[in-house]
Amino acid sequence: GDSVTQMEGPVTLSEEAFLTINCTYTATGYPSLFWYVQYPGEGLQLLLKATKADDKGSNKGFEATYRKETTSFHLEKGSVQVSDSAVYFCALLTSGTYKYIFGTGTRLKVLA
Amino acid sequence: GAGVSQSPRYKVAKRGQDVALRCDPISGHVSLFWYQQALGQGPEFLTYFQNEAQLDKSGLPSDRFFAERPEGSVSTLKIQRTQQEDSAVYLCASSLSSGQTDTQYFGPGTRLTVL
Fold it and tell me: Mind listing the pLDDT tens digit for each residue in B16-69?
């Protein structure tokens, strides 16, 4: 069945460091891919998305490119801030369905 | 504008009690979803409504779980005779239409602890 695999956390970085959180997927057809962020005590918020191969989603300095050949959607940010500390979830939505398939989440801690 | 809201935010129940969790979706959103998020895991799909119709309940873990959305707006997830394994965060999400690629907007969740 469809699945999403994320790198395990926690990921601990110093402020202004470069961030990569790996995400790979297995899916039939052509899924849409998403990154959601969950700040402490809050619900999931959509961070960015890409709906077809080679699309790049971007928001708040975060980017991810839909790579069909490597079935990946890695999240990157050039310079993280303490306020980026949160749990990040990669998710897919298989074409023709409405059920998100989420990864297990990666906790990011950014130290001042 | 107002987002998805859920109440209560925290619920502690004794094993065997019934609980009811409420979701207020974004006004005008056609689709409503419930997910269960166990500790340290990603959310898992429970059920889907399009307006008042429950089109998919394949993710409900047992017949103790029941969801309704009688007027196509507010939804309630009810869990009867709660068990310890029901302890989780229950997330509600809504989307504007019934399109499969519609972005789902999530509420803050209800954290259920069953003692």
Answer: 999 999 999 999 999 999 999 998 889 999 999 999 999 999 999 999 999 999
Best to test chain B binding among A21, A49, A59, A98 (most B CBs inside 10 Å): A98
Within an 8 Å CB–CB cutoff, is residue A51 touching chain B?
yes
**A83 φ, ψ (degrees, to nearest 5):** -70, -10
| A105: closest CA of chain B, how far (Å) | 6
Q: Which two tokens stand for residue A24?
A: 């790979």
Task: Compute the distance between CA of residue B77 and CA of residue B82 in angstroms, rounded to an integer.
Answer: 13
Cβ partners under 8 Å of residue B99, min gap 6: none
Q: What is the DSSP string of B13-79?
A: E-TT--EEEEEEPPTT--EEEEEEE-TTS--EEEEEEETTEEEE-TT--STTEEEE-TTSS-EEEEE
Task: Pick the closest to residue B15 from B87, B111, B81 (CA basis).
Answer: B81
From residue B102, how far is each of A12, A94, A107, B114 by CA, in Å?
A: 33, 12, 26, 34
What whole-number distance in Å separates Cα of residue A93 and Cα of residue A56? 16
List, run by run, the mean pLDDT of 10-residue segments along chain A (112 residues).
91 96 92 93 90 94 96 97 96 85 95 95
**Which pair of structure tokens corresponds to residue B113?**
């602890």
Which pLDDT score is estimated for B98?
A: 73
- Show the tokens assigned to A9: 């956390």
Task: Report the sign of the C-alpha dihedral through residues B69, B49, B5, B9, in that order.
Answer: positive
